[in-house]
Write a structure and sequence with these properties.
The complex is a heterodimer.
Chain A (H helix, E strand, L loop, with lengths): L1 E6 L13 H20 L3 E6 L8 E4 L5 E4 L11 E6 L3 H12 L13 E5 L10
Chain B lengths: L1 E2 L3 H22 L2 H22 L1 E2 L2 H28 L4 H6 L10 H10 L6 H11 L5 H8 L3 H18 L8 H25 L10 H15 L4 H14 L2 H4 L19 H15 L6 H14 L8 H14 L3 H15 L1 H8 L12 H14 L2 H14 L3 H15 L2
Antiparallel strand pairs in B: 1-2
The chains are: A alpha+beta, B mainly alpha.
Chain lengths: ~130, ~425
Amino acid sequence: MKYILMMNTMKTGQGVPQWPQKDLRAHIAFMIGLNKDLHERGELVSAEGLSFPDQAKLVRAGKDGRPITDGVFPESKEFLAGFWIIDVDRPERAYDIAARISAAPGPGGAPLNMPIELRPIMSGPPQEMV
Amino acid sequence: MTKAWDATSEHLLRELAPQVLGTVARRFHDFAAAEDAVQEAMIAAFTQWPQEGVPENPRGWLIQVACRRMTDQMRSEIARRERETAVAAETENLASLEIEADMDSDDTLILLFMCCHPGLTQSSAIALTLRAVGGLTAAEIGNAFLVPEATMAQRISRAKQTIKASGVPFRLPSPSERVERLPAVLHVLYLTFSEGYASSIGSHLQRLDLAREAIRLARNTKTLLPDSAEVAGLLALMLLTDARRAARTGPDEELIPLDKQDRTLWDRAEISEGIELLTATLAKGSVGLYQLQAAIAAVHDEAERAEDTDWPQILALYELLKRVSPGPMVTLNHAIAAAMVHGPANGLQLLRALDTDPRLASHYRLDGVRAHLLEKTGDYEAAIKHYRIAAARTTSIPERNYLMTQAARLAGD
């Protein structure tokens, strides 16, 4: 069963985190190690990190159907920072992975305990319908 | 002497893969390494044969190439160890290794039991079976499950390590072990088939046809275990279900329920083969879970129109199935059959028993069936509610679309 794990940690106007080099390195190493581990277990479908919120654009079709782009939009409180798509045998395994991501090290090496949103991906086989 | 590469050659390679793997694994007593070597031999065949032609003895060719890889690998392994500990002589033994064509049809059976090892997770067992017994590449299996090739290769590799670590010898399980472990093997084949049911719908058409692969594997298994009524029952169930494939979805990929399907699209050849298989097993006396499900599928397939369906017989078969293999899904399907025979109120009554079953209480199927039966009683409001609950809980897009549409149909526009 496939899941998407979404890391919604960014705030509007937020740029590169200003952590000490040691902490930044530990965080990056954690993420690389995590992806490597998921890959080796045959569970990683894909993982992507997203650009910082100042690169975000909001696109909507105008009345003539042409795109209208907005720059940074202050009404959004949270931004998707990155996501993982995993394929695991049990939901519990997905929860474990999400918890591991949540506890990624932050400043001073302390766990960030950030919220990770987990959603099943619609990939189940359909049954015969009555 | 070679013969030209043609449409049958790829099929031949797939058929040979488990035989070659069996021979090599037996000879070197190392399933994991043998599997790697056979994959390399297969890749070599796929690149060379289309140009140079299919060798006269393709199996011998593959065994030879795979064994050469094995010895090369072992030599370099030994060389590495020699540098450290100066172990000698082994190379000599390897050099004298003759490549005999010690073919044993049991080898494929050993592989099948090995791949459906109880220590493996279901997804790993399916992947390994498709690779080692089905002769598919990691890329093809990854494509079938919509995961990257590298991820699938890792999954297979871990599965092989698990088997290696478990220390199972490469030999046929004893007759009593076989009886004990056959259900797990059949379950893996059945799951592969069910997964294929999803992969053959609409936008996934470019995916490898897992249902066909599962049927092929079940056919091979039946050749290996000709006396097992359940193996024949499983193959019959697959054929009798697969026969309805073309009628199961509409032009917009929408699911079409059994009673609305265009039955002229059903595959008559698959139906007759399935019924023939089933009839032969029933003559043997014992009746298992797959034979019963196949028998139910056969009753549906035999009805020319939905209204001709012999529901009393289906109900009787579900009652038998409840005794042979009780479970919430069986209870659910039994309730549908009961509703068809004794009316929807009776079916709804039977569903109540499932409300407290943790395995099914929040499962979309329970709400989907309840909605369907409520609709039949004329309680549209409740039916709409349950169709919507079911739509929110399923993890299948075609199913969600179907259930949402049912709710919308009852709600009116």
